[in-house]
Design a protein that fits this description.
The structure holds two protein chains of two kinds.
Chain A: E1 12-19, H1 26-36, H2 42-54, H3 77-82, E2 89-94, E3 98-104, H4 111-120, E4 124-130, H5 137-148, E5 153-159, H6 168-185, E6 191-194, H7 218-224, H8 228-232, E7 239-246, H9 254-258, H10 262-265, E8 271-275, E9 280-282, E10 286-290, E11 295-303, E12 306-308, E13 310-312, E14 316-321, E15 332-335, E16 343-352, E17 358-359, E18 363-368, E19 371-385, E20 390-392, E21 396-397, E22 402-413, E23 426-430, E24 437-443
Parallel strand pairs in A: 1-3, 1-4, 4-5, 5-6
Antiparallel strand pairs in A: 2-3, 7-8, 7-15, 8-14, 9-13, 10-11, 10-15, 11-12, 11-14, 16-22, 16-24, 17-21, 18-19, 18-23, 19-20, 19-22, 23-24
Helix pairs in contact in A: 5-6
Chain B: H1 2-9, H2 18-36, E1 40-43, H3 48-61, E2 70-74, H4 80-93, E3 97-101, H5 102-107, H6 124-133, E4 138-140, E5 157-160, E6 188-191, H7 199-209, E7 220-227, E8 230-233, E9 247-252, E10 265-266, H8 272-281, H9 286-290, H10 300-306
Parallel strand pairs in B: 1-2, 1-4, 2-3, 4-6
Antiparallel strand pairs in B: 5-6, 7-8, 7-9, 9-10
Helix pairs in contact in B: 2-3, 7-8
């Protein structure tokens, strides 16, 4: 495979994460992907080989494996010493089709926190299942989190297939279980692959031990699944959170201010910088600024001196508008006629990621797009049972809980339902005291019957 | 005429390559930090990652100028070509340059020269001093997660305490493209907008954008001697021992840091396209090939980062 020559310019980017229970072999699978796709360079491999030998690593069950592939990803001293993964690690490799960004997420402690983090940006998540154990409650919980976060592609890798003698009947039973759980939760198009991360079967190379499996290898699947932006482009209307206003006046870039007459032509330059959150925008499009509701049309799309006709998610550009209207950081520019009402009451799913529990009446900060406002948690209305996917009554949330809450905002925001808009329906809950991130928030449709007027700002 | 029809159907802007996406992500992060922090600064050594960062910053704020100063932590063990390049770049972009000098700390007796002579680990103290002296609340770095196992665990916005320390076991989760930079007095944030780039991405982007680099990134003839399996340049702070033979080789550098511990690689890559091909075919990581300080132990980078290193 040539990663050197011209086609490289056309490489696309694919982000995926791993999820699984303790000892499912996630780090080994990641190590195998990196190793077999030749992403591990000689000096790194030498170092890992030396460490493996020093620790007497001989592989499981008399395997001929000489190196502990998990050492390729466990980056912290404590992780190597304890043989566990503590924090999300990011890894990079490419094939001649795609560049991959891989978030390797730990399975034991704080699995919700790590799975939510890894899944929030992932185009796909690979969920590991141990072939000897089958689909566990934790697998079910992982799949539920992925469903909640709307991860577009989910792959179940049935690992350690070598330890069940490459048994087709074992694989088929696990496959049927996984599909049944996925169906119950509402995940569609889940792919199931038999692999041995330790021995390499069906990870990059097709295995000779599983003639009964006719599907693609894990890497082939990852090379061909559609990205989130490919799936959503054209479906979602244009949204553009304004990051800042570019109005250089006297502070032009030196090469522009010295160019003939350029200084004069940029004197009144005013553009709104941001990243297209969804959909696309073209010169001439009618836009509405939220929350003010003022309207204008797009007269220019600039990117570092280039004038574009069109921009799509997730490009970072600057927009020039036909009218001089008051727009500041935190406003959202949207395609006219595609947005309902801005809301001051938020009803949302919260994935609680902090050891500090959530109580009703808490004052928090809500970071949505490029805007941060205050929020008052008026009510915690339910806790999600990841096993039944139903809600139970509760008055607070603890670390790794997922639940629904009603939040009153200090000012109205252009919030949208996460189920329809992944980027504009997401927000962070931040602790106003120490600034830590408390929760990942997903906006839900307001059910109406959860109204609670006990708290008024 | 038929070609026009085809172009109308497949809009080329809709095909975003991995470089387009990495660029867009980095610009988004740079703009977020500038919007949310009072006094950001960019670490600028003249090395390729910091040059790339500055290039991205000029694109992020066009047609305005880069709205923050640059900070160089000067080991005093510089390649003269790199310092010349640094000064010329700062001048061209009309930026303010702050320098934190390792030499000054050594002269004042506040830092001790190490037995092995390398000054890379000594940069932490002048770095933290420059940050607090200038009241910088956000510092952009060109660190990439593919550089090192400890860096692979780094956040894009990384909170540092009053001592500049990194606490890898207690990091904020980073979700979607929402970056939480809130900090209290005395704390600051390190921002790594090119976290997700690989060495090859950096070189492909430098080629695509035609970004100028210090000349020693390209193959040139140089007096070198072999030490610890690397070619070291002969220079003021990098002198061969009597038994180390000086030879002239065609070499280039993959990283440019402290001259006393940065090695050159034998190379014929005289153009950026040659370098892209060479990096793509390389079997060694850039730090493994050229950084003596990272060979010290498996956790060398983690230990330095915990103390406040870049």
């Amino acid at each position: 495979m040539s990663i050197i020559e011209a086609p490289l310019a056309q490489l696309t980017l694919f982000r995926f994460a791993t999820a699984g229970s303790v000892d499912d072999g996630k780090s080994t699978l990641v190590g195998r992907l990196l190793h077999d796709s030749k992403a591990i360079l000689a000096d790194t491999l030498d170092a890992v080989t030396r460490t493996s030998e020093r620790r007497g690593f001989g592989g499981e069950n008399g395997s001929t494996q000489k190196i502990d592939l998990a050492l390729l990803t466990d980056g912290l001293r404590a992780e190597r010493e304890q043989g566990i993964t503590i924090d999300v690690a990011y890894r990079y490799f490419s094939t001649d089709r795609r560049s991959f960004i891989l978030a390797d997420t730990p399975g034991h402690v704080q699995y919700t926190k790590n799975t939510v983090t890894g899944a929030s940006t992932a185009d796909a998540v690979v969920v590991l299942v141990d072939a000897r154990k089958g689909v566990l409650e934790q697998t079910r919980r992982h799949l539920s989190v992925l469903r909640l976060l709307r991860v577009p592609n989910v792959v179940v890798a049935v690992n350690k297939i070598d330890l069940v003698d490459f048994s087709e009947s074992t694989f088929r039973a696990i496959e049927a279980d996984a599909q049944a759980v996925a169906g119950e939760i509402g995940l569609s198009d889940v792919l199931v692959v038999p692999v041995s991360a330790l021995e390499g079967d069906n990870v990059v190379e097709r295995s000779a031990h599983t003639p009964w499996y006719t599907g693609a290898t894990l890497l082939e699947i990852l090379e061909t699944l559609p990205t989130t932006d490919e799936l959503e482009r054209g479906l979602e209307p244009f949204r553009f959170p304004v990051q800042l206003v570019i109005r250089p006046q006297g502070a032009l870039a030196p090469e522009l201010s010295s160019a003939f007459d350029a200084g004069a032509s940029f004197r009144d330059y005013r553009a709104y910088a941001g990243q297209v959150a969804s959909g696309s925008v073209s010169v001439g499009d009618e836009i509405t600024v939220l929350p003010s509701g003022r309207k204008a049309s797009v007269v220019g799309i600039d990117f570092a001196g280039r004038a574009l006709d069109r921009a799509v998610a997730p490009q970072s550009v600057s927009l020039r508008l036909s009218e001089e209207i008051d727009i500041a950081r935190g406003d959202v520019i949207a395609a006219t006629g595609t947005f309902g009402e801005v809301k001051q009451d938020l009803y949302a799913e919260l994935c609680w990621l902090s050891a500090k529990p959530l109580r009703e009446g808490a004052k928090v900060l809500i970071k949505h797009g490029s805007k941060t406002v205050q929020g008052l948690v008026r009510a915690v209305t339910g806790k999600l049972d990841l096993e039944t996917f139903g809600y139970g009554a509760v008055s607070g949330l603890e670390l790794n809980d997922i639940g629904t809450a009603q939040i009153r905002l200090s000012s109205a925001l252009p919030i949208e339902t996460y189920a329809l808009h992944r980027r504009t329906g997401a927000f962070l809950v931040v602790d106003p005291q120490d600034g830590n991130t408390l929760a990942a928030g997903l906006v839900k449709d307001h059910p109406g019957d959860h109204e609670d007027e006990r708290y008024v700002i | 005429m038929s070609t026009q029809v085809t172009e109308a159907v497949i809009d080329p802007v809709d095909v975003l390559t991995s470089l387009d996406l990495l660029e867009s992500e980095a610009i988004h992060i740079i703009r977020e930090v500038v919007a949310e922090f009072e006094r950001p600064a960019l670490l600028f050594s003249g090395g390729k990652d910091s040059v790339l960062m500055l290039h991205l910053a000029t694109k992020a704020f066009w047609p305005g100028k880069v709205p923050f100063p640059v900070l160089h932590v000067d080991t005093g063990h510089n390649f003269p070509e790199v310092i010349e390049f640094r000064d010329r770049t700062v001048e061209r972009l009309g930026l303010r340059l702050e320098v934190g000098s390792v030499q000054e700390f050594i002269d004042r007796g506040e830092l001790a020269e190490r037995a092995d002579g390398t000054r890379n680990p000594l940069q932490t103290v002048p770095l933290l001093d420059a940050i607090s002296r200038n009241k910088f609340d956000a510092v952009f770095g060109g660190g990439r997660r593919d550089e090192d196992k400890a860096r692979a665990k780094e956040r894009i916005l990384s909170l540092r305490d009053e001592f500049g320390q990194w606490d890898p076991r207690n990091q904020r989760p980073e979700l979607w493209n929402l970056y939480n930079g809130r900090h209290t007095v005395g704390q600051h944030v390190r921002a790594f907008p090119i976290s997700n780039w690989t060495e090859l991405d950096v070189w492909r982007y430098i080629a695509r954008e035609g970004i100028e680099l210090p000349p020693l990134y390209y193959a040139h003839e140089r007096e070198v001697f072999a030490r610890d399996g690397m070619w070291r340049a002969v220079g003021e702070v990098s002198q061969p021992l009597p038994d180390e033979e000086v030879v002239i080789k065609q070499v280039r550098y993959r990283t440019v840091g402290d001259m006393s511990c940065t090695g050159a690689v034998v190379s014929n890559a005289t153009t950026v396209h040659d370098v892209v091909r060479e990096v793509a075919a390389s079997t060694l990581t850039e730090r493994g090939a050229t950084r003596a300080d990272d060979r010290i132990s498996e956790a060398a980078m983690e230990d330095r980062k915990k103390d406040g290193y870049f």
